[in-house]
Design brief:
Layout: H1 4-26, H2 33-50
Length: 51
């Protein structure tokens, strides 16, 4: 099994990546709403597991 600390680090990286992608998408004139919803929901799920 994956050590608990390694799992937490992976979740933090996923949350940071989701936030980064959402910020990048906010600068686009035409938003891809399915991608925005996907990255937002992945970030929320990761935060749920972290907390």
């Amino acid at each position: 099994m994956v050590p608990y600390l390694l799992f937490q680090i992976a979740l933090i990286i996923i949350v940071v990546r989701c936030v980064y992608v959402l910020v990048q998408m906010s600068n686009e004139p035409k938003k891809r709403w399915l991608d925005v919803l996907f990255h937002g929901s992945v970030g929320i799920v990761c935060l749920y597991f972290l907390l």
